[in-house]
Design brief:
Number of strands: 8
Distance between the termini: 18 Å
Strand order of the largest sheet: 4-5-6-7-8
Structural class: alpha/beta
Order of helices and strands: EHEHEHEHEHEHEHEHH
Strand content: 5-15%
Number of helices: 9
Largest sheet: 5 strands, parallel
């Protein structure tokens, strides 16, 4: 059983309803040392915060507005809501970003909401959790603005080009992979190998994108172990070593407490032994 962190999970999603606590416990039993619960709206950020308070030191949360909902971004109400969440323990701003695949919100509104959240991240000295889909040119431009603002973050559930990943890595960002990399349709092993070991994260994006052999079912954090195992095979790394490395990377990006690395006596961190 390998140690890991789920750097992106939607535990506040209705798909988990009254089962979130059980999902959290299954993840812990599978080797998870930290879960980052995403608040992609004011409402989900509040639910995520309550879960983080109930599972202090194991579950952490973020606060932001998803690009699908950017049309509803309000300059008077949303920044104070995000600021309040950060004051109450949110470890990052987001999930925010750009998505021109669905275009649920107009592109100009997506860019406006994203830049407003970048300003908040810079002000609050927090990283950004970035969603990007079919918006590579705009994302590269955004990464330049983030670098100028001294804001780092993560390209979550990454399926984009090597070039965009390189642009993110060049300004100190992290790249996170989900269960998609276990699908038979995934062939971009070059992308999985090119991310440096100290910029690599893994995630579930649960309840979505369950890895094989659970594809098509509701995803959960415990299944990150399967994504981690596949990533280790493709990269030619020991799965335990990779698990610890991605855990340390998650801790670094989100400034999590040192205690997440304090393994039970049955485990040992190769970097601390």
């Amino acid at each position: 059983m390998s140690v890991f962190a789920d750097s992106h999970v939607h535990l506040a999603d209705p798909a988990f309803a009254d089962e979130a606590d059980a999902v959290i416990q299954r993840a812990r039993a599978q080797g998870a040392r930290a879960l980052v619960c995403i608040g992609e709206s004011a409402a989900t950020a509040l639910l995520a915060r309550r879960l983080a308070e109930r599972h202090a030191g194991f579950v952490f949360f973020t606060a932001g507005v998803h690009p699908h909902d950017a049309a509803s971004w309000d300059d008077d109400t949303d920044p104070p809501a995000v600021r309040e969440s950060v004051a109450n323990g949110a470890v990052a701003v987001g999930e925010c970003g750009l998505d021109t695949h669905y275009d649920h919100s107009p592109r100009d509104r997506q860019l406006h909401a994203l830049d407003a959240q970048l300003a908040l991240a810079a002000e609050l000295r927090k990283p950004i959790v970035l969603h990007t889909r079919e918006a590579e040119a705009d994302t590269v431009d955004f990464l330049k603005r983030a670098d100028a603002a001294r804001v780092r973050g993560v390209l979550h559930c990454y399926t984009g080009s090597v070039a965009l990943a390189e642009a993110a890595l060049a300004v100190g960002w992290f790249v996170s992979f989900s269960g998609i990399i276990t699908f038979k349709s995934w062939t971009d092993h070059t992308l999985l190998r090119m991310v440096p070991h100290d910029r690599l994260l893994v995630e579930s994006d649960a309840p979505y994108l369950a890895p094989a052999p659970h594809r098509g079912k509701r995803n959960e954090s415990a299944f990150v172990s399967l994504t981690l195992a596949r990533l280790a095979v493709v990269r030619g790394q020991d799965v335990d070593e990779l698990g610890w490395q991605t855990l340390r990377n998650t801790k670094e990006l989100f400034d999590l407490p040192e205690a997440v690395l304090a393994a039970p006596s049955t485990m040992s961190d190769p970097a601390h032994s």
